């Protein structure tokens, strides 16, 4: 017998040692192009039409996503008794034969998303019933009706998580989830559900319910006390009424956003609600209307039809609102509604509130007092309203003592209450953009003119004054602040006059936006802003890059929408070029014949030009990409950029040579006559 080749022996030895000493802890190739990592076999996207029978027998997790498997046969999983996780997402699975899982009794997680299980759902149900340990089942995207779902899950009492999202379920009743006594999480989003009739009453352990993106018109008589998370966003809900009860509800998160709510929801009287999301509804409070009328004593009657019984419930809205228990609420999002004003003591019910979003409403005034102290509030968003008045009733107690982010952008404010920031001792971000406000320029003037006084607010680091119509800022409006981020964009006259206000920002300012401020190349001396790392100069009329930028060590620079024909040739070698990591350059009239700076920038390591594909240059009437200039354009540019002295010399040389030759010829032709004329004039006799 011949001795095996040395290399082959070594390879066989290594494979044997690796297999016996836990080589499964690392990646290894497997049949069919699958990958093995710690007993996890990944066969995703291998164009497999069946499960291979020659994979590792001790495999615990199998991933066959994005293949073409149509049938999971009785023998498909016989060789994998230790399997606990199987994923067959995005196949063409039509059938799971009844005996397919008989050898996989330990299977706990099964994903069958985006298949065709509606075709043979009854046989597939028989196969699923053989999984006593199954905890998580995903049937999303299988074109299943509610009756099919009922059959598929009827014998899965061990299930803790079930997803039947993206199917064709239309109506839910008490027969569908009857035996799912251990279910904790249920996902029904993106179906066509328009009616729910006691479908969840038997799910005593259910904690998370997702019915988003359906067609529910209302939720009346909500009584799932054990539920912690309820997502009914993106329906057509007009009313949300909780069952009248003094029982404690475990509900912590309620998402009613993107519906058609007309009123504030009637919530449990006793709950642990922490997040209430009401964004994008038609909600308003009718205690006071804009025309001065009041509907405070108006009652609403609900006609509730349950089978053959009819029940009329009368609700006095303001009483119900007062009975809501919001003491544990942390987040309230009421943005994108039709709120004109808040009821009396509405915010006083929320002592734990940390985030309040009232943006994109119809608020014309917003008042805060000691009763609405909101001591825990860290974020307040009142942007995109119609605010002309912000009232603060100052007393002995602090108002908004923990506020960090205050967004008042896009309103009609002209000033803020004097001394408002003496109570907000932790504020870091203030957005006043698109209001007609002015900063108080000199000490003592805050009481005599309408302005905003931020002097001495040491915690303030981010300030936006974009689009405020600022026309120069005298004095020192930023004195005593530590601003790191300042947005002055869309103020056409902000750089007019004395720029002494910059002196209080020299050491701290890191981000500055001067977009669309009519900036000229010499208007601002940037060299003193030594801490600046991000600068936006877009939307101006710069015809040359300000020379004071050369010494800065910026990380990001935006030069879009200017009038730059070129950048300095040495920009890549300057401190600015060496420090830049992000540079925006598009929408400038660059000259195609002076692109040396562009080539040098391309050589810089670490520099990214996000809009590089949009950068163009001009050559005559043509607009071209600087990275792909045609050869005729390059030749034309060479002539235009050649040394003009050499060009003149080349042009003048033929003329000079022509004149020289002409002179020589004339001289030779007239030589005899010229000599005789000279002799005659000088009186010299001819020799004989």
Q: Would you write up a description of this structure?
A:
- With 688 residues, the protein is an alpha/beta fold.
- The protein has a 24-stranded mixed β-sheet, with no helix packed on it. A three-stranded mixed β-sheet has the order 35-36-37, with no helix packed on it. Strands 5-7 form a two-stranded parallel sheet.
- The longest helix has 26 residues, at 644-669.
- Residues 1-20 form the signal peptide.
Q: What attributes characterize this protein structure?
A:
18% strand; alpha/beta; 24-stranded mixed sheet; 688 residues; transmembrane; 37 strands; single chain; signal; Leu-rich_rpt; three-stranded mixed sheet; disordered N terminus
Mean pLDDT comes to 86
Which class best fits the helix and strand makeup? alpha/beta
What level of helicity do the residues show? 10-25%
Rg over C-alpha atoms, rounded to the nearest angstrom: 39 Å
Largest sheet: 24 strands, mixed
Number of strands: 37
Helix tally equals 9
Strand content range: 15-25%
Distance between the termini: 126 Å
């Amino acid at each position: 017998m011949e001795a095996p080749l040395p290399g082959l022996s070594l390879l066989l030895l290594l494979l044997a040692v690796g297999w016996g000493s836990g080589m499964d802890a690392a990646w290894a190739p497997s049949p069919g192009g699958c990958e093995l990592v710690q007993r996890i076999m990944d066969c995703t996207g291998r164009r497999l039409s069946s499960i291979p029978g020659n994979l590792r027998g001790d495999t615990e997790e199998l991933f066959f996503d994005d293949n073409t498997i149509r049938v999971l046969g009785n023998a498909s999983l016989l060789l994998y008794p230790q399997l606990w996780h199987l994923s067959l997402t995005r196949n063409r699975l039509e059938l799971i034969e009844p005996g397919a899982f008989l050898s996989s009794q330990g299977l706990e997680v099964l994903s069958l998303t985006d298949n065709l299980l509606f075709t043979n759902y009854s046989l597939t149900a028989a196969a699923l019933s053989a999984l006593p340990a199954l905890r998580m089942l995903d049937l999303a995207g299988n074109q299943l009706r509610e009756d099919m779902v009922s059959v598929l899950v009827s014998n899965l009492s061990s299930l803790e998580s079930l997803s039947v999202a993206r199917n064709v379920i239309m109506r839910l009743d008490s027969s569908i989830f009857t035996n799912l006594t251990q279910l904790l999480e249920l996902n029904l989003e993106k179906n066509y559900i328009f009616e729910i009739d006691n479908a969840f009453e038997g799910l005593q352990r259910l904690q998370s319910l997702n019915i988003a993106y359906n067609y529910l018109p209302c939720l009346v008589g909500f009584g799932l006390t054990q539920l912690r998370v309820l997502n009914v966003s993106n329906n057509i809900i007009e009313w949300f009424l909780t069952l009248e009860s003094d029982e404690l509800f475990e509900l912590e998160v309620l998402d009613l956003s993107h519906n058609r709510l007309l009123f504030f929801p009637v919530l449990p009287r006793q709950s642990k609600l922490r997040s209430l999301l009401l964004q994008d509804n038609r909600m308003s409070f009718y205690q006071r209307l804009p025309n001065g009328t009041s509907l405070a004593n108006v009652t609403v009657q609900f006609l509730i039809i349950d089978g053959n019984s009819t029940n009329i419930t009368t609700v006095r809205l303001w009483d119900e609102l007062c009975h809501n228990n919001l003491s544990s609420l942390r987040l309230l999002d009421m943005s994108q509604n039709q709120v004109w004003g808040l009821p009396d003591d509405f915010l006083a019910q929320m002592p734990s509130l940390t985030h309040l979003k009232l943006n994109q409403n119809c608020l014309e005034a917003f008042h805060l007092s000691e009763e609405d102290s909101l001591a825990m509030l860290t974020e307040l968003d009142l942007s995109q309203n119609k605010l002309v008045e912000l009232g603060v009733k100052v007393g002995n107690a602090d108002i908004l003592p923990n506020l960090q982010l205050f967004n008042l952008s896009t309103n009609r404010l002209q000033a803020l209450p004097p001394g408002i920031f003496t109570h907000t001792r932790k504020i870091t971000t203030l957005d006043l953009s698109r209001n007609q406000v002015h900063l108080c320029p000199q000490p003592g003037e805050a009481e005599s003119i309408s302005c905003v006084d931020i002097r001495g607010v040491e915690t303030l680091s981010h300030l936006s004054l974009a689009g405020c119509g600022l026309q120069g800022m005298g004095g020192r409006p930023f004195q005593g602040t530590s601003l790191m981020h300042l947005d002055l964009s869309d103020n056409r006259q902000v750089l007019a006059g004395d720029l002494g206000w910059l002196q209080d920002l020299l050491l701290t300012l890191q981000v500055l936006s001067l977009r669309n401020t009519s900036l000229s190349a010499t208007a601002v001396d940037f060299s003193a802003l030594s801490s600046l790392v991000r600068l936006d100069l877009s939307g101006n009329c710069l015809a040359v890059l300000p020379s004071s930028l050369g010494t800065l060590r910026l990380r990001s620079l935006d030069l879009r929408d200017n009038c730059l024909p070129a950048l300095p040739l040495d920009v890549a070698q300057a401190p600015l070029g060496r420090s830049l990591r992000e540079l925006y350059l598009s929408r400038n009239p660059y000259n195609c014949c002076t692109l040396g700076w562009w080539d040098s920038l391309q050589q810089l390591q670490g520099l990214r030009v996000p809009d590089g594909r949009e950068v163009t240059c001009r050559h005559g009437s043509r607009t071209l990409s600087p990275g792909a200039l045609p050869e005729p354009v390059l030749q034309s540019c060479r002539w235009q950029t050649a040394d003009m002295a050499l060009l003149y010399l080349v042009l003048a040389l033929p003329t000079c040579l022509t004149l020289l030759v002409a002179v020589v010829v004339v001289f030779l032709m007239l030589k005899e006559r010229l000599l005789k004329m000279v002799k005659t004039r000088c009186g010299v006799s001819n020799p004989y």
